[in-house]
Amino acid sequence: MIYDKISKKFQHAEPDADLFLYETVEGILSSSDTDREKLHKIRCSYAAANAGKAARSAELCSNAEV
Question: Is the pLDDT of residue 65 over 70?
């Protein structure tokens, strides 16, 4: 699923993560979904990005403690 891909890109700090998120949101906005569906998908996209960042931060913290 696209949200998993977003999360993985941010978790692994891939250089194109922000661009991928931007392009995903652009695609959502240009879709024929209702505004409510678009908003839900955009929120999920940003939540996936934040989850990936949090997972990366947790990995860095756990590696620093060892």
Answer: no
In angstroms, the Cα distances linking 37 to 15, 16, 32 are 29, 26, 10
Q: How many CB atoms lie within 10 A of CB 18?
A: 12
Which residue stretches of 1-66 are H helix? Answer: 2-11, 17-29, 35-65
Joined together, the tokens standing for residue 5 give 């891909």
Please state, in angstroms and rounded to a whole number, the distance separating the CA atoms of residues 38 and 41.
Answer: 5
At residue 59, φ and ψ (nearest 5 deg) are -65, -45
Q: What is the pTM of this model?
A: 0.86
